[in-house]
Automatic annotation (TrEMBL):
GO terms for molecular function: DNA binding. The keyword ATP-binding does not apply. PANTHER family: CELL DIVISION CYCLE 16,23,27, CELL DIVISION CYCLE PROTEIN 27 HOMOLOG. Signal peptide: none annotated. Residues 2-99 form the OmpR/PhoB-type domain. Residues 99-111 have a biased composition (Pro residues). This is Tetratricopeptide repeat protein. It comes from Parahaliea maris.
Length: 763
């Protein structure tokens, strides 16, 4: 019988990691579950980190980040409002855990008790990736071989007795399919191996009461030197399928092994030797035999599937691998492979979809790198729409296609249609991690962070090592003000994905916002070094020099960047601005707005330039047109439009519209008080309150807040103090200059610190 604990409103099953409260279930990761089990058994005393490493991690090498993350997840899961309600940190010593006695429900009357039954544990939701309903077309003997060989594997997996009928039903069986290893000297088998693994994941996703880990997570563990037990623990699965594939001429050999994760005991293994030409004729017989063996009970929505040509399939695999690198070079490679895949088989929906996603990602990443020739951008956008429409025509239930359509509708401002498209995507792929990630991001962008967090947790259960999912999770936690948990999630994600530059970008921004600009610079430099040809990464370092009040170095950095990327928008604009040429900077921004009229960011930059030139009426017109919510009563302030609110309030004051200025300034101060220190993803600078308080004539409070911000090392975009001529000029004098000198001294010390760190790392 498994071990369980009851405390407060919670029931905790140690074996499954399930935390249950009032019918709601949270499944903890295995390591986090072991931490909770140990703390429940050792509460009301000091528990040191060394003790946790010995008892929970079994003396493995563990970073502080891993322990912090486990504790953060427990605190978040048990009590989001009072995070130290159950586990308190004892500084420089460890932790003390205290758990209240269980909350017992009243004993029911005898009649009711006699009728009481224990509800059956519902099966975990399954990943569903349905394929096109188009008729089967068998054009390639080689593709038939892949399907036939894989079908024999699946026949066993579908009929394997995952449950012991003599014992109580446990939680749903879980399986990770590793990429089959390539053997032999030919280059092709690595695509055969991935293809077979992908096909198994796709087919088993429809098996009742079997949860299959998504490919992103299972494939991420390749070549890590991990044991099967370690892989099973990392992915939280009960079984692992591994194998190999070898092609010699027209012969194909596939070896597969199904292994228990807890004991590494081999449950089943087999070797398949087939002649490709012979397999073509028997493919349908094998597929029918599988369905017959299942007696129609284990597959949901069984139907004929479209079979692409072997050439198109392999090119699609190559394209997807290139796309998943998420770099400009990767997008270029993916575009070439996917265009060839479409040409090889125009009726195959997947390369159309992936090509639309690739083109969209490429144009988004490249939009501020160079200027597109007239009509080129519009042609790319038209191509995206064409390939997406084709994918939906060929496979109307392709969930990721509906999710992409939702994002395009959102960009066009068709919010209702976008939400409808997301609902269709969720209907066809309710557990597709990519669809869930897209929907979660859409929710978070609408400040629906609680809903977004639920969706992300659900997606992460299917794909726990997905880099993009973990980054979204970190962003949402940060947006909810849960900084410690957000940082822990991204630090752990960086450990798993050390080559993912965007993790470094998030940590850089957050450490800057938390008052550690020197550490932020180190993260930005590491990000640049991971992707040195990407001008965005180079630009982040240049901007960080400016954040550290080192304008001379920032200008040299910008000059170097423009030498390699002369059309890079941000560098051109900032170069003019730092040289004091506001007119030229304004021309550059106006050109960018003409190319991208729907991007608010460029209009925010224009507002700041108008302020530097005292163009008050232009500010009022642009701010009211772009952010009409600022004119409502009361004004609605968020993380993005507060930048515009600062410039608009200044313009209103300078044009004698005092009442409107006061309402806008007071609403903005209320927003700052709610989001101070973290400011989530927006543009609150940390000294915005100085501007609004100065406008309101609350001079003493303005100085007190600026001094408090400097005491707290809050430096995000603090150079605005030096740049803004209005209304900070009204505060000029010895007191303000003394505070500016303090901030300058702090940032100089941070520059020395990061430079010392770099020097120590040099050989």
């Amino acid at each position: 019988m498994g071990v369980s604990h009851e405390f407060g409103p919670w029931q905790f099953d140690v074996d499954t990691g399930d935390l249950t409260r009032a019918g709601d279930v949270v499944r903890l990761e295995p390591t986090v579950a072991r931490v909770l089990d140990y703390m429940l058994s050792n509460q009301d005393r000091l528990i040191t980190r060394a003790e946790l490493i010995e008892q929970v991690w079994r003396n493995r090498v563990v970073s502080d980040d891993s322990i912090n993350r486990a504790i953060s997840i427990l605190r978040q899961s048990l009590d989001r409002e009072q995070r130290d309600a159950y586990i308190k940190t004892l500084p420089r010593r460890g932790y003390r855990a205290s758990f209240p006695p269980p909350q017992r429900a009243p004993t029911p009357p005898p009649a009711a008790a006699a009728e009481e039954t224990v509800p059956e544990t519902p099966p975990l939701e399954l990943v569903t990736e349905t394929a096109t309903a188009a008729p089967v077309r068998t054009q390639s003997a080689r593709w038939a071989a892949y399907g036939a060989v894989t079908a024999v594997l699946i026949a066993f997996l579908l009929t394997y007795p995952w449950r012991n009928t003599d014992s109580p039903a446990p939680a749903a069986a879980t399986l990770a399919v590793l990429p089959f290893q390539e053997l032999g000297g030919e280059q092709e088998p690595k695509y055969l191996g991935e293809g077979i693994s992908d096909w198994i994941i796709l087919r088993l996703a429809d098996v009742n009461e079997l949860q299959v880990t998504a490919r992103t997570s299972s494939f991420s563990l390749r070549n890590r030197g991990m044991t099967i037990e370690q892989i099973a623990e990392a992915l939280n699965v009960s079984h692992v399928l591994e194998g190999s594939v070898q092609k010699q001429g027209d012969r194909l050999r596939v070896i597969a092994r199904l292994i228990r994760g807890d004991s590494e005991r081999e449950v089943w293994s087999n070797s398949f030797d087939r002649n490709i030409d012979e397999l073509f004729s028997i493919q349908d017989d094998i597929a029918h035999a599988i369905v017959a063996s299942l007696k129609g009970t284990l597959l949901r929505g069984e139907k004929d599937e479209y079979e692409p040509t072997a050439a198109s399939f392999q090119l699609t695999l190559r394209g997807r691998q290139a796309y998943n690198r998420h770099t400009q070079a990767g997008y270029l490679d993916a575009t070439q492979y996917l265009e060839e895949a479409v040409a090889a088989d125009p009726e195959y929906a997947l390369p159309h979809l992936l090509l639309a996603k690739t083109l969209r990602a490429s144009i988004h990443a490249d939009s501020v790198v160079h200027i597109y020739p007239s009509g080129e951008r519009e042609a790319i956008l038209a191509s995206i729409t064409q390939h997406l429409d084709t994918a939906l025509r060929l496979d109307p239930i392709l969930s990721e296609a509906h999710a992409l359509r939702a994002q395009i509708l959102q960009q066009r401002g068709e919010e209702a249609a976008a939400e409808d498209a997301f609902q269709q995507a969720l209907e066809f792929g309710p557990n597709n991690p990519e669809v869930l990630a897209d929907y979660a991001r859409w929710l978070s962008e609408r400040q629906r962070n609680e809903e977004s967090l639920v969706v992300l947790r659900r997606a992460a259960a299917q794909d726990p090592r997905n880099n993009r999912l973990q980054q979204l999770l970190g962003r949402v936690l940060w947006g909810m003000g849960l900084a410690e948990q957000a940082v822990a999630v991204i630090e752990e994600n960086l450990r798993i994905h050390p080559d993912a530059a965007n993790n470094l970008s998030l940590l850089a921004r957050w450490h800057m916002q938390l008052g550690e600009p020197g550490q932020s610079m180190l993260y930005y430099m590491a990000e640049r070094d991971l992707d040195p040809d990407n001008p965005h990464r180079q630009w982040a370092v240049c901007l960080m020099h400016w954040q550290l009040w080192d304008n001379a170095t920032a200008l040299r950095c910008i000059d170097h960047l423009l030498a390699d990327h002369p059309d890079y928008y941000e560098a051109r604009k900032w170069q003019a601005e730092l040289q004091g040429d506001h007119a030229r900077a304004t021309e550059i921004v106006l050109e960018q707005i003409e190319r991208y009229p729907d991007v608010q960011y460029y209009k925010l930059q224009l507002l700041s330039l108008y302020t530097a030139q005292a163009r008050w009426q232009a500010i009022i017109a642009l701010a009211r047109e772009t952010f009409p919510e600022l004119t409502e009563r009361p004004p609605k302030i968020n993380d993005i439009n507060i930048w515009a609110a600062r410039e608009l309030a200044t313009a209103l004051a300078r044009t004698g519209q005092d009442q409107a200025m006061r309402e806008l300034s007071q609403a903005s101060l209320q927003h700052i008080d709610r989001t101070r220190k973290l400011q989530r993803g927006g543009y609150t600078t940390g000294i915005d309150d100085l501007v609004f308080l100065a406008l309101l004539g609350r001079t003493e409070e303005a100085f007190e807040r600026l001094e408090a911000a400097i005491d707290q090392r809050f430096s995000f975009y603090s150079q605005v103090i030096l740049l803004a001529p209005e209304p900070i000029d009204t505060l000029r004098g010895p007191r303000l200059e003394a505070l500016i000198d303090r901030q300058r001294a702090f940032l100089e010390s941070e520059r020395r610190w990061y430079q010392q760190q770099l020097a120590q790392r040099m050989p």
